[in-house]
Structure formats: C-alpha cells, structure tokens
Amino acid sequence: MPVQKQVRMVADLNKCLGCHTCTMACKTMWTDRNKGQMHMYWNNVETQPGQGYPKNWETLGGWFNTKDKNSIPLPGINESYGTPWEYNYGEVLKTNGGDAPASVLIPNPKPLGGSAYASNWDEDVGDGKFPNSYYFYLPRICNHCSDPPCVDACPRQAVYKRKEDGIVLVDQKRCRGYRYCIKGCPYKKIYYNPEEKISQKCIFCYPRIEQHKGNLCATQCVGRIHHVGFADDTASSVYKLVNTWKVALRLHPEFKTDPNVFYIPPLSPPAYTQTGKLTENQRIPVEMLAKLFGDTAEQSFDERVGRIREIFSTILSEREKVASGRSSELIDILIPHSEADRIQV
C-alpha cells in the first residue's frame, strides 16, 4: 500500500556528543519494562570506525545482496549483543545521606572473555595513530526505509509501513517470531524477544508523531542534532537539508532500501604531517566516510567521495559568510533556536 506521506530524520554528526542521552531516553520509554528486551537498543550510538551494535552488523548482510536467504546469519543475543550487566549505583551514588562506600562504578557480573560485548563496547577507540587518531559518533535507529526488506521478508505480513507517515511497524499479534525480518534487514535494527517469541523494533515514537511532538530521541538530544519532518514538506528543515542544500546523505545506500534517516557527515580537525606540520587534509579520511554515506545505490565510490567533499565545501563556505557578517539559511537551520525549528511534524 503506497504511503501518503513519509516521515524523515536528519542527524547532524558535527554536533553529536556521544552522551547516549537519546539511547537512554529510548530505552527508558520503550524497552526496559518487559522481559526479553535487555539487549534491545532501538536507538544506539556507535563509535565509528568501530564494530557497532549488534557486533559487526555491517558484515551480517541482508536479502539485498544474496540469493540464499538461509545463508544470512542471525545475530546471536550473547555473541552479537553481549550479556547485560548492572552497576553498583547504590554504593556510588548515595541519595539518602552519608558517605558512599564505593567511588567507582563496577559492572556485575564483570564482562570477561572474548565474547564480552555491549552496545558501546569500543567507544572512543576509533582508528589512526597519534597525532592523527580519529573517531566520530553515529546514532542509529530503524531507517523506516521506503523499500524495507523486512516488510517483504515476513511471511505473515506482520511487518508493514503505516500509510499515513511511512513508519515501519511490527504487528505484535500477527508476529510468530520467524525472524525472517531480522535476516532481511541489512542494518540489523529489528530485535528478537526470546521471552515473548516475537520481533520488536523502533516505532519512531509514532504516538508522539501523532501528537506533533516529535520522537523522543530527537527531543531529548543534548546536542540538538536531529531534524524531523516529512519528505514532501518543502518548508521543513529536513527537506531543505536533503533537497535544497543537499548536505545530508544516507547510511549505506548500496543496501538498496532507500532509508529515510539521513546524516550530515562530520568535519574534523586537520591532520598533521610526520614532522608536526598542519595540512589541509581532514583527520577523518573522506574515503572512510564515503564507505558509509552516499545518496543512492547507483553512486560510484568516487562519486560518493566527491559528494562528501562538496558538502564540506558548502558548510565551510556558509560558515565564512556568517563570520563575515552576512546571513546563511543553511547555518540558521543547523543552529536551531527552538524545538519548532527542527521538529516539524
């Protein structure tokens, strides 16, 4: 069934702090009450370069690139997501007076061994060698794709796109936990609940969208990095960032799902030479970013490199305009003064 409107999100990675407020807001709202959801982070923030969550999700694949659907591995809850643990908050964060018996947060049970993992296990590790080491943060939710393989994968038609806004949902009453949707999703943003024997995923906070409030990860973000709006709303910041200024790209467009979450790729400090002199090259290699971000599945790698350089040139040029006392629509969009400037649903 064709959708009437498609909701979209743009995340400005130049402003992501890696604070995980969006992750905890989502977790608190949706996946910390029921059994079988401890490993579910419908929103998670990854350090890139890094293994991501679930572990090595980029290499697990989906139905877009194989003829053998049975050959795609399912993320194992212990191997790919890790084993959840708790911290001794009661000992460190005293709320009833007196001295805290402990000064350091310690996980329990302590994660050990080669299979130990968590949603931000390799946080702030990145790549490169001093003084040119680098990393950036990548917040991820379900992309609510225009061509979602999870919808096609489900033999019970339990996964569907809402016609009023294009949000992808799982009908919990129809789902039987076959997990074909998880195999089909190349972003691995659908989770299996082993207690309830069903699949569950990000719902883009559709009750809040219906109330014109915006999804929780966007409204709670400390860095105010998110813009939310409809694809055809020419007055929205989402439309202007994607279509007018063309500074927002899709994550792995080669997956051929037409994701509706876009990212403004991160600028970075200049790199140093071996003798300690500054260069004009950005510390985060443009080629590394081009492996992640692009416009369409048909773009070549060189075209993706060119697009990222074009985006950087546009942003830096508009910054210079503002620095010289002139105005810039793009910079005004990227530095919103109110929630209404970036949440337009």
Overview of the structural elements:
Strand 6 (159-161) and strand 7 (168-170) form a beta hairpin. The two termini are 22 Å apart. With 345 residues, the protein is α+β, with helices and mostly antiparallel strands. The protein has a single domain (7-82, 118-344), classed as 2-Layer Sandwich (Alpha-Beta Plaits), CATH 3.30.70. The chain has helices spanning 21-30, 57-60, 77-80, 89-92, 149-153, 180-184, 206-210, 216-219, 237-244, 286-292, 301-323, 329-334, and strands at residues 7-12, 44-48, 86-87, 107-108, 136-140, 159-161, 168-170, 190-193, 198-201, 226-230, 249-251, 261-264, 270-272, 278-282, 293-294, 343-344. The model has no long low-confidence stretch (mean pLDDT 93). It has a 6-stranded mixed sheet, with helices on both faces.
The level-1 CATH class = Alpha Beta
Bin the strand percentage. 15-25%
Low-confidence stretches: none
Fraction of residues in H or I helices: 10-25%
- Which structural class is indicated by helix and strand composition? alpha+beta
Number of helices: 12
Provide the gyration radius in Å: 21 Å
CATH architecture term: 2-Layer Sandwich
Q: Which H/E pattern describes the elements?
A: EHEHHEHEEHEEHEEHHEHEEEEHEHHE
At CATH level 3, the topology is Alpha-Beta Plaits
Query: How many strand segments?
Result: 16
From the spread of the alpha carbons, the general shape counts as globular
Number of domains: 1
How far apart the termini lie comes to: 22 Å
* Strands ordered across the widest β-sheet: 15-11-12-1-10-16
